[in-house]
Amino acid sequence: MILVISYPGEEHTDDVVGRLQRAGRDVVRIDLADFPAASGLSCSWDVGAPERYLIQTPGGTVDLAGARAAWWRRVRAHTLDPLMSDPDAMAFAMSETNEAVSGMLDALSCPWMNPREADSAAHHKPLQWAVARQVGLQLPRTLVTSRPDDARAFIAEIGVGKVVFKAFIAMLEAWRETRLVEESDLAHLDSVRLAPVIFQEYVPGVDLRIIHVGERFYTAELDAQDTSYPVDMRMVIGEAKVRPVELPARLEAQLLALQRRLGLVYGAIDMRRTPDGDYLFLEVNPAGQWMFVEERTGLPISQAVADQLCAMADRGVREPVGV
């Protein structure tokens, strides 16, 4: 059995699950938002019997102890019974549900893509940047700060119009594009005291979306330099020139070292290649999207993800993290 944890309608998950099922694999897909309101669980440790991790699915009861591989894709928060209204009771129920579900998943002996703890830690950009430098990758000059004076000094040293600011996480509820710092922004720098902000030197060049799956890399060049918004290719992906490219072997080795130190089996890596041929690391998204790359380049990424899950299931043992 291959366990897939993601929510309904997530198109990347839908595509890969379809490939797995067509290949004859037994796939169980669960949405964490179903617990505890719409789905039950029962974990047991009886004398002389193996442990059991039973969950309720639309197709019946499934024992997750039989999982041979698991895919932690994109998840939603738990959902409580709508009849609950007392805040203290709701907080308690949410905490207890998280402890039970998380503990159950962590107890599974199968390998994960990605291991949940590693996936969570690797979402933190300061950690990414520290590890990236340790493996020899170059970064643009970067400042994370909630101190207005530090922000002013950083911008003054590099220059207005040569620094971008951006968010740590692309939240659907408060999505923000990457923007250049302009003169009009200087009057608002005191607001960084309200929450830390990423400031980064803006380096012209072409973007690279690098999809890492297992031991392989699938790379697309996204040239947004002549588009209406070259600062953030996500805003103009339809205008950008997109083509598959190969990375230098040394760079691939550094990126593989990065992913292994972060404990990731999968990651969507963003880099910038300068006109001089330098490669600058920007970030890695442990649950980043790839279908827009696959559609524009023909790179077989969805099949690679499915094949990786099958290979992990065939081995069926948890692999050490960070080696």
TrEMBL record:
InterPro entries: ATP-grasp, MvdD-like_ATPgrasp. Keywords: ATP-binding, Ligase, Nucleotide-binding. Residues 129-310 form the ATP-grasp domain. The keyword S-adenosyl-L-methionine does not apply. One of its GO terms (molecular function) is ATP binding. One of its GO terms (cellular component) is cytoplasm. GO terms for biological process: SOS response. Pfam families: ATPgraspMvdD (PF21068). It comes from the Bacteria. This is Alpha-L-glutamate ligase. The lineage of its organism: Bacteria, Thermotogati, Deinococcota, Deinococci, Deinococcales.
